[in-house]
Amino acid sequence: MSSASMPPVDLTGDLPCIGCGYNLRGLSIREVCPECGVAVRATLLACVDPEAEELRPLRNPPLVAYGLIVWSWAAVAAALSVWAVRLNDAAQLWFPPVINTDWTMEAGLFFIALSALGSTVLVCPVRGHCSEGRVKAFAAVLLYLPLLFVHYKLHGEYDRLIGTPFITNEGLDVGRSMLRLAENLLIVLIVLGLRDNAVSLAQRSIVMRTGRVDTQPMTALVSTLVLASVGDLLRLAFPSLGGVPGDLLTTFEQVIIAVGSFLFTLGLFGVGIDTLRLRGVLLRPSPGLADILDDAHDR
Prior knowledge:
64% helix
């Protein structure tokens, strides 16, 4: 059916023009914005969610929206607390230690606990019967408890017992590698457990659902942790290799761990940015066709 033969359908709800923000309420879908000339249909395609009526309402939109932000950005802060120690280690190669980083372990534990608190909104964010993702998300939240313990053992005991482990190589032993692998495994399980419900919330954004924004940062997190774990697995496989081969292997292990950890931190930032994008969608869902079109036309 051509646009000329389409029956007139007026917008009965508020709909701001994507070009200038003018309220298109009362106009026909065949018209253009009187302010900027953008076709009303273009705004409909960009702003109206055809699946809005199928999306189940959230239990508490503000709690879910801000809980996601706390969950993601607290994880970023926890990662940065570890980077503060490692960067301070590197600085000691050229400068005397002037910064006390003992606080970073407590800060890391605090932010991990805060991230765990924020993650609880992903257990069952929608009203009514929750999907099977509820069980996985609940298990993921519980895994924060052993993660706190491993983080304390790794950064509260090893870091304080052996300074600058990645600079002097004194701390690159089997025990530390096992703790790092345990920490990475726990984080992977947490990410995989929360991913389904997090992605289902991301699907409420038209931009993310249609692929115009990358929605795979959580999957990328798993890949970066696998990469970082390769260095520790090599340490476990060749714990006593000495001489030049041992030095080369140690350097390779350090590089792999550093690159994987850096990419992981970037991935956390990506997840955090996505939660900020979702905040507006969760608090003010995109209108559906029934919200802006005359119901009488359908009848």
